[in-house]
Design brief:
The chain has about 90 residues and is mainly α. The chain is built from two helices and no strands. Helix 1 packs antiparallel against helix 2.
Length: about 90
């Protein structure tokens, strides 16, 4: 009977750093988006008149779009690096 042990391939140290950077980046961006939109929505409620509310709403939308753009760009780059550093079979 042939008894061979199967070893699961493991990431290199650099691969682990990239993987955890990818995970941390996504968590950070989620916190940033939720916190930013939540904070901005409080400012919209505090606005004195309709013009201030409209300006705050437009600013919130632009800010959210910028955060989402940074999130997508960073997640794409780090995701590709994560795939490239995955363990080989």
């Amino acid at each position: 009977m042939n008894t061979q042990t199967l070893q699961k391939p493991k990431r290199s140290f650099f691969g682990k750093i990239i993987k955890w950077t990818f995970i941390g980046f996504n968590i950070l961006m989620l916190i940033w988006l939720v916190g930013g939109v939540g904070s901005a929505s409080r400012e919209i409620v505090k606005a004195g008149n309709d013009a201030e509310q409209a300006g705050a709403a437009i600013g919130t939308g632009i800010g959210a779009i910028v955060i989402i753009f940074i999130w997508v760009a960073g997640a794409t780059i780090l995701g590709i690096l994560t795939l490239l550093t995955r363990p080989k079979k």
